[in-house]
Every structure is written in C-alpha cells, then in structure tokens.
Amino acid sequence: MSTQKIGFFGLMKSFDSAESSFEAMAGGGLKATVKHELMRGVTIDHLIWWFHNIDQTTTFNGRDFDGAEIDVYKLWHPHDHIKVKWKKKITDEAGHIQPGSVISIHETFGGFVVNESSLITQFDRQGFHFQMGIFGLKVGHLLHFYREIDGGVLYETEMEIKCRAPFIGTLLTWLACRFFATEPKIRAWMQHNIEECGESEKFIPQLYEQSRTVDSESRRSVLAPE
Fold first, then answer.
1. How many beta carbons lie within 10 A of that of residue 178, not counting itself?
2. By three-state DSSP, how is residue 155 classified?
3. Shortest CA distance to 29 belongs to which of 192, 140, 119?
4. CATH at 159
C-alpha cells in the first residue's frame, strides 16, 4: 500500500477509499474498474463544465481567486499531470463538445509516462468516454460514468485493453498488453485515477461558480447602457 500523497488541498485519497477490481480477460486482454467514493457537493453540471474547460487556467488557491495562475489540470493532480489540450474539438450549436473530438493527455504515474491522444466516443450527462488505439484500430477504452444523487455524484471508471478486430485482434491485444498498457501500468493508473477523482470535490464546484459569476458580469457589462 502506497503512502498517501499531498495535493494542493491536503491529503489525496488512498487506494482503499474506492472499490476496485482488476482482471485478465478470457482470450486475452486486461480490465480494471474503479468505483469512487461519493464526490460530495459535485453535480453533473459541474463535471460537464469541467471536462469542457480542462485545458484552461485559474488563480484559485483553495480559498479565493487571488493566487498565481495555474493550469486547472494541475489542480486535479499536481504530482502526475503535465499538460492536457483539445487536439480536435467538434461542437454542436450550443458549443457542447461532441464525439469525434480528440483530447491530448500528457501525464505520468508510477514511473510510467503517458503522452497520447484519445478519441471521444461519448460525452453527455451519463458519461465521458475515450477510445484508445494503435495502428488506427481500437485496442481499448477508458470510460467515465457518473450519476447524480442527493449529496453529490457517484463516479465510476473503467479501463479495458482488448482489440476485437477480426483476424488481427488477438495479436494487437497481446502487443497492447505487452508494450502499451501492461498490468503494472494499469495498476499504477488505478492509484492515479483514485487520487485525481478524489480531488474533484475540492475545487471543481468553486471553479464552476466563479465561471458563472464572470459570465454574468460580462453579460451585464455588454447590456449596460453607455
């Protein structure tokens, strides 16, 4: 059991704060799931806003917005997160990010470095899902499910590494599990995922409310008579 890390807002979640499972799949492949503790005070609106704005900066310091400017992605995990950006952003008429968008993630955990782009396959009020691939073929997915209840949000994450393409699927699954997403790497990601998701309740609601305040003041300024 690893020692609990200290984030911007104090102790980060421990591994055993969540329910998790890891399995080697029949016919090849690996699958990990994490059911997080309740994200207290968080809503679906908060999470939708967060993923839309995950590449922005803030001056939030845990108390107010008078701190130094920092990437909001760093607040989620100051030890492991390096940079995130929307490599391709497809939006609807309301500006909501749509499937087909591509997000680029640069992070490190457990000695493993991730610098990859993932295709968004679903982004709505039920989930935020990525597709992972090599050689242009899907070899896995990373799914984020969320459900709002009284007091907060129930959040579950699932990573699966398995290529179901005919003929070549078994080989690509073996290659992915051997070189791209090994068991030690996935287990390190599980720890990372528990830590970052545990930080969500400590700053996402505050950033969301600040954004709404800024937007409201901006609208009033535009509508104010000369």
1. 9
2. strand
3. 140
4. 3.30.530.20
